[in-house]
Write a structure and sequence with these properties.
By secondary structure, this protein is of the alpha+beta class. It contains 2 helices and 6 strands; from the N terminus they run ββββββαα. The protein has helices at residues 72-76, 89-98, and strands at 14-16, 22-31, 38-44, 51-55, 60-62, 65-67. The two termini are 25 Å apart.
Length: 124
């Protein structure tokens, strides 16, 4: 994904799958703690449904919309960790596996109280 985009500008944008079908609206963006680069987005998949985590790499931001190169069914079946909380390294690894991405960052063991996957727009 383009790294020069303010992750807060993604919030509220429509998200589409690889076929062009609307999945929902970007609810939150999660940043990598080490680099501050946007890594995951939580997409609200409907009025009464949950948010689905989607990888921002290899997704693209085009014409004001997030284009996610995965099928809608795979996105809707992503592990549900709830939103508004940090993603642990284990949760991120589950997401990488779910999407078949092998470029998961190699994270060493972290202290139990360390926060991972902080939300865009939140100060520490």
């Amino acid at each position: 994904m383009q790294t020069d985009i303010d992750p807060r500008s993604l919030i509220g944008r429509r998200a589409f799958d690889r076929q062009g079908a609307k999945i929902g609206t970007v609810d939150e963006v999660y940043l990598d703690d080490a680099t501050g680069v946007p890594e995951w987005a939580a997409v609200r998949t409907g009025l009464f449904t949950r948010d689905a985590f989607v990888p921002l790499e290899p997704s693209e931001f085009v014409d004001g919309a997030l284009l996610i190169p995965f099928d809608r069914a795979l996105i809707k079946d992503a592990p549900d960790f709830g939103v508004g909380r940090h993603l642990s390294p284990e949760q991120e690894l589950q997401l990488y596996r779910h999407y078949g991405l092998d470029s998961a960052p190699s994270a060493g063991p972290a202290a139990p109280d360390r926060d991972f996957g902080r939300l865009a727009g939140q100060e520490e």
